[in-house]
Write a structure and sequence with these properties.
The structure is a homodimer.
Chain A: H1 4-34, E1 40-44, H2 47-64, E2 68-70, H3 74-77, E3 88-93, H4 100-111, E4 116-120, H5 126-129, E5 133-136, H6 149-166, H7 169-191, E6 204-208, H8 214-228, E7 231-235, H9 237-241, E8 253-257, H10 264-276, E9 280-285, H11 288-291, E10 296-299, H12 309-327
Parallel strand pairs in A: 1-2, 1-3, 3-4, 4-5, 6-7, 6-8, 8-9, 9-10
Helix pairs in contact in A: 1-6, 1-7, 2-6, 2-8, 6-7, 6-12, 7-12, 8-12
Chain lengths: ~350, ~350
């Protein structure tokens, strides 16, 4: 126990580097074929992949001016009254490509003669079989139950798609430089991971992220829940103000994931507000002013553009969640009650 | 203290009845003007109104075959790189009509010459001013900080819109009959509200709902957080299986909101699974088999079509959250740390 997950977390810089090299031409081809063939995008995904879909909402909205909708799979599988996709491009994200509800959304899109793309780590899966285009993560089998490398690789796939759709060479270069930054993030995190000790008896927490890193808050929260059984609840700082902020009391543990970028000043102000309410912060950032507010902090490398920052910002959360599982005496590779492939209808 | 909120909860059948009568013609007019003028809908909303938007995803998807996307307001206000709406209809939901981020989404839609509708309780608000069409809830000022009657009225507004868009007389009649069922729900709930006693020292819980009542899970969870400071986390049963189910241990409190309908059998099976994991259930349903699984249960009236069931199913949750606040010695009308109007950017 406690070997597989760390191995896969550490593989991330290398497998993403190799993914970007191997899939660049193919993704470029998809983009040139599909460009101007759709008005908006619908993404179907569950669990960790749904957090990649959350990233896509900001990424494709901000960098490609495309409105992204998240599919509601039960309309397809249970109610059997799916929406008409009109001029949508429909994307499925699933590392295993097995979940019947996600397959059903893509299958319906195909029947409606809409273009479909799947992002998956298994090109022989039902999801791949029902898709016009398959972006193959091809990063080796993920053996630990909690998804890590398939998450960051899915984000990288979306980022590659975004770059080629807009034909933006500068952004593509920044993306290709990212694996080095991921490696630095891993090194920084491993050096400071003993800080996790403090959270041995934490039984709940909130995870805050906004904009591009809304996805990061969701994914860190999911890793914590899966691996440690701690009730970790993700919020954007804006949504948190609309009600849930009432739950904050003295010592309330809040994880803030906020790399530099357009949203940063808002998160900094919000974090000061949380401190004034008595919250105790764990900060993941590259900014000293914010890091100083954390009782515990994980430092991110500087110079990462905000639009790809979720691919690095999640890493300290992955390592923290794993370490916390170990501190609590749990098996981080095979959390009780979870299976690697969850089939939902 | 502890007067305003209950008064407003109890007003719901009456104000919704009157809303439906007063706004029917106007909503019919909007629908006839906008029909075939859009391919999909984007909804901008925060907090309680965002839960109404979640209902709209299922309602308009299932009953009107329309894909609904939830807007990501920070792309408009902070990043200032909004998506291009192409052939979208853009809807803002906000009882106060004040939140600058929601106003900004509608303002951008207007600049892009897309049709806009707002659903609000204040026709002089900035949101109303920036909208082509304003569906006026007109249900009197909501004085308690936690939104209740503006939530169910927003759902009713969406339901009215859905009926007129499809020109479905039978559904419209069912909607008009709903206030009577709401009154029955209130009576049933008030008679059994002493059950809340048991939860005095509960500090966290999960709330499960799926399909149409995914919105109900979110809204009950939000009321509990706002009013009681309990960490209440909403999930669809499908999403819960993809990871968070690992947090369930002996005695773990889970609220299940599941009226009869297409999704019901899935929730019943899932609830049995939760029991086998040791969870303790509080059930809101009209089905005896499910109600029996609850340590505590609130009975809904029979014969409510699933597509409008969220308007009644939320009521026991509202009353429960208020009563739990009182059991915990809190002021249910003015929860500490919250304001009635939250302005986010």
């Amino acid at each position: 126990m406690n070997k597989l997950l760390l191995k896969e977390i550490k593989e991330q810089p290398k497998v993403i580097d190799s993914f970007l090299v191997k899939q660049e031409k193919y993704v470029e081809k998809i983009c040139s074929k599909l460009k101007d063939q759709f008005d908006y995008i619908v993404i179907a995904a569950r669990g960790t992949s749904d957090n990649a879909a959350r990233y896509a909402q900001y990424l494709l909205g901000s960098e490609n001016s495309i409105q992204v909708a998240l599919a509601t799979p039960s309309l397809f599988t249970i109610y059997k009254t799916p929406p008409i996709f009109k001029k949508a491009l429909v994307v499925g994200i699933s590392q295993s490509g097995q979940s019947p509800d996600i397959v059903s959304v893509l299958g319906t899109a195909k029947k409606q003669k809409r273009p479909t793309i799947s992002i998956t780590n298994d090109t022989n899966s039902p999801l791949a079989n029902v898709s016009d285009y398959v972006i193959n993560l091809d990063i080796g089998v993920e053996k630990a139950v909690a998804a890590t490398k398939t998450y960051t690789a899915s984000l990288a796939a979306l980022a590659l798609f975004s770059c080629h759709l807009s034909g933006d060479k500068e952004r593509l270069d920044a993306l290709k430089d990212l694996p080095v930054k991921m490696l630095q993030t891993l090194d920084n995190t491993m050096k400071n991971i003993t800080q996790t000790n403090r959270y041995r008896y934490m039984d709940h927490c909130v995870v805050i992220g906004r904009g591009f890193n809304y996805s990061t808050a969701f994914e860190i929260s999911l890793k914590i829940k899966e691996l440690t059984r701690v009730i970790a609840v993700p919020y954007s700082s804006a949504d948190f103000k609309h009600g849930p902020i009432a739950t904050v009391n003295k010592g309330f543990p809040i994880i803030v994931a906020a790399p530099s970028g357009m949203i940063f000043d808002h998160i900094l102000d919000f974090s000061k507000n949380l401190i004034s309410l008595g919250a105790e912060l764990l900060v993941i950032s590259d900014n000293e002013s914010l890091l100083r507010l954390g009782k515990t902090s994980f430092t991110l490398p500087k110079g990462i553009p905000e639009w790809i920052s979720p691919i690095t910002a999640v890493i300290p959360g992955q390592v923290f969640a794993r370490q916390l599982a170990i501190e609590k005496g749990l098996d981080s590779d095979n959390p009780e009650g979870l299976k690697k492939v969850t089939e939902t209808y």
